[in-house]
């Protein structure tokens, strides 16, 4: 039995499928794809479970859970479940599914996981400042030719390149 | 019949997300190494995939509008807040360089078995709580220097949409041509040809 992973698609082929999926999303819903809308809803729900009093009093998260409303009852929740299923189907069908820890190749696993946690905290904070992440603002915003999408992408790539070059010695 | 259809239910979300997640996986974006290799200029897949997708969707919407099938006013266009939009992008870019993913690709990474994808995802939740804690203090910056509502590049530059579309196509074509011979990053991505 052949167990070799199947090749990745060429960037332009994968990009074309992604673009057609994004176009379908606009045609069906009137808005694009997203990511951080879901993590924000999950953060509000999680905070409400752990510390309901503090959450209700918070100016940002409070309105999301006011009067017993459930921020996870939204289109974006289904879309992220779809992303998870699509990614799993993709990884399994290409024989690419492996339990491991990616990340800087010169660090051991605890160091890699610490970097992932720190990066996640910074990205999560940043995506709330800009009201969207690489998917919602960068990809979907730019597809509508929004200035916000391109301004976000400019900041993303310049800062990413600076921190990418600063951390390049961590990668073999 | 004109689009958008206003299908904002579970099936529409699942279908759109499924295509999104599958395309990101096939591009190799389950790998923190491959994603950050773009930021070290060792691999150009992130740029090429994103720009191709933006152009396909933007041209598609342009043609549907011309044909009278898509109502432009019903398509959501985000509004710029100069400092918030820019600094948020700076944060998400730094977060990807340091932690390997962005919110969407961390889900794709974890569903391919990457435990750091899950840890990054947990980090996003913590980062959102930190933001919520600092919200009152941040608010003046978040709302500073708003642009015109739902402004597009074409409106900013006073040119037709087609001019912006052709300029973006030219950028994508030039970068695509120059990077076509850049070997893909030497990342442990199963299925990466070297």
What does this structure look like?
The complex is a heterodimer of chains A (172) and B (194). With 172 residues, chain A is mainly alpha-helical. Chain A has helices at residues 11-29, 36-50, 52-57, 62-65, 75-93, 109-129, 134-143, 147-166. Chain A contains 8 helices and no strands. In chain B, α3 packs antiparallel against α9 (161-179). By secondary structure, chain B is mainly alpha-helical. Chains A and B meet through α1, α2, α5, α6 and α7 of A and α1, α2, α3, α4 and α5 of B.
Query: Which percent band covers the strand fraction of chain A?
Result: under 5%
Q: What is the radius of gyration of chain B?
A: 19 Å
Name the poorly predicted regions of chain B: none
List the chains of the largest interface with their residue counts.
A-B, 126 and 134 residues
Number of helix segments of chain A? 8
- Tell how many strands the DSSP assignment of chain A holds: 0
Number of folding domains of chain A?
A: 2
How is the main sheet of chain B built? none
C-alpha Rg of chain A (nearest Å): 19 Å
Tally the helices of chain B: 9
Helix and strand sequence of chain A: HHHHHHHH
Write down the overall geometry of chain B.
Answer: globular
Number of strands of chain B: 0
| Helix and strand pattern of chain B | HHHHHHHHH
Protein topology:
The complex is a heterodimer of chains A (172) and B (194).
Chain A: H1 11-29, H2 36-50, H3 52-57, H4 62-65, H5 75-93, H6 109-129, H7 134-143, H8 147-166
Helix pairs in contact in A: 7-8
Chain B: H1 10-27, H2 32-39, H3 45-66, H4 82-99, H5 103-111, H6 115-133, H7 135-142, H8 153-157, H9 161-179
Helix pairs in contact in B: 2-4, 3-9, 5-6
């Amino acid at each position: 039995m052949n167990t070799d992973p199947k090749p990745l698609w060429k960037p332009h082929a994968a990009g074309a499928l992604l673009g057609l999926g994004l176009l379908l999303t606009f045609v069906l819903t009137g808005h694009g794809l997203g990511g951080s809308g879901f993590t924000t809803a999950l953060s509000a729900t999680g905070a409400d479970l752990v510390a309901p009093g503090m959450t209700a009093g918070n100016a940002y998260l409070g309105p999301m859970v006011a009067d017993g409303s459930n921020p996870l009852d939204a289109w974006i929740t289904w879309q992220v479940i779809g992303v998870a299923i699509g990614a799993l189907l993709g990884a399994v069908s290409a024989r690419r599914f492996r339990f491991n820890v990616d990340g800087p190749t010169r660090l051991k696993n605890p160091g890699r996981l610490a970097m992932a946690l720190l990066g996640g905290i910074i990205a999560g904070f940043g995506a709330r400042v800009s009201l969207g992440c690489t998917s919602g603002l960068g990809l979907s915003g730019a597809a509508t030719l929004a200035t916000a999408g391109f301004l976000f992408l400019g900041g993303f790539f310049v800062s990413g390149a600076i921190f990418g070059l600063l951390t390049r010695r961590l990668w073999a | 019949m004109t689009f958008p259809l206003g299908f904002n239910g579970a099936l529409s979300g699942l279908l759109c997300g499924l295509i999104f997640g599958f395309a990101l996986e096939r591009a190799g974006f389950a790998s923190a190494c491959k994603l950050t290799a773009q930021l070290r200029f060792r691999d150009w897949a992130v740029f090429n995939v994103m720009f191709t997708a933006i152009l396909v969707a933007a041209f598609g919407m342009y043609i549907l509008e011309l044909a009278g099938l898509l109502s432009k006013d019903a398509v959501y266009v985000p509004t710029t807040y100069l400092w918030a939009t820019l600094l948020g992008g700076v944060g998400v870019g730094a977060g990807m360089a340091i932690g390997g993913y962005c919110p969407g690709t961390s889900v794709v990474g974890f569903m391919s078995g990457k435990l750091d994808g899950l840890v990054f995802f947990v980090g996003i939740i913590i980062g959102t709580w930190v933001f919520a804690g600092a919200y009152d203090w941040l608010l003046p910056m978040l709302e500073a220097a708003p642009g015109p509502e739902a402004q597009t590049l074409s409106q900013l530059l006073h040119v037709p949409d087609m001019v912006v579309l052709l300029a973006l196509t030219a950028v994508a074509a030039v970068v695509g041509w120059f990077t076509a011979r850049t070997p893909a990053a030497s990342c442990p991505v199963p299925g990466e040809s070297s």
